[in-house]
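Table S4 entry, O-antigen ligase-related domain-containing protein.
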Amino acid sequence: MKTTANINFYNQLLRFLIYLNSAIILVPDQFKGVPIALLLLVVIVRYLKLNQKPVLETKKFVISISFFIILLISIAYSSDINFAMRKLETGLSLVVFPLIFYIVGADKALLTEKSIQTLKLTFIFSLVFFLISTFLFFYFTEPFYTFKSTLIHYTNLVDIRIKHFEIHSIYLSICIGVAIIFTLSIIGNCGPSLKKALFFVLILLITFIAILNKKGPIIFLGIVGLIFLIKNKSNYKHILYISSISAILILFILYVPKYNNVNRFKELFNIENNKNSSTAIRIQIYECALKKIAQSPYFGYGWGDTKMVLNDCYEQKNVDFLNKNYNSHNQFLSILLSTGLLGFFTFIYYFFYLFKISNKKESQILFLLTLYFCLNMLTENILEREDGVIIISLFINILLFKPNKERDVLSNKI
């Protein structure tokens, strides 16, 4: 009886820590590792106290950490070990979260549908709190700022003016995209009060992703919505709902004030005449990355040397990128630069496996999140920044390892 009570205590503590990790955006930067470490510690202690150990899915775990292991091996032939160690520290979530959910994933009493929904809601409402509170903070504390000027400068302020909570606007946009997907997965299967709250939240999320005005996360969210409609064979309710969201988002993008009165989407149609646009800069970075990959295609340059290799190319091209320390701005190119074709194919197989498991488990949430993250990796190294790697590793692994009790689909009751 005492053992049962102890296990129940650890279960409650474990759920709390999982929810805390889903609200990681509200944790100061210097303490973000603490909830993850506590979660791992409680998972291990709980496992040791269990009388009946759950069946561990070792194949999933090995595939989940395989590309990270290859990155780790590549440190051996990196010349900049200090930089490699910093990247290793940032990327530890890629091992820790698979280990956590490898240990607890088969426990059907722990990872219930209710607990997964609570996890989603915690992430959604903590993000909304962050967005509203930071906006109000800028509005009331920035000298001479009006509501309109706060709208205009929010994209830059969120990255530089909230000490210990800074987050790049692209990564904040990606988080908003995830929250929109989560909201759509919940909104049709909840009570009237929560449904009204989520409708309001959805409008807020659309507003803020339009204010941030980052091309990649918005375009990729649209692609995910289109593929969802195709997979669900044109359910008219889904078409109406997603079309309405898309129309609202487009209107906001067109009419919400922009920083320096610039709409970033216009640069997609004027790359040649604007060499300083983010799109034009990315094209030049990709040229350098591909050139260097071709010079060492099989094993790459090592995890610690990608920055040095790219900087060498920037210097040769005589472009002003050295002071800004640009990375490859494409996760797949970064893997190729770090580990060559061996690491790249391991990385690709990992995502192929995620799509395969999502189909086997009939989990549309896992499929759509994996797709959304993959698309964003085409323009960002989101596994190399703490803001990206924690969110991806947490949600992908909890959905990958959780027991398959029923179909995990977006709601038909809109």
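The chain has one domain: 2-272+324-401.
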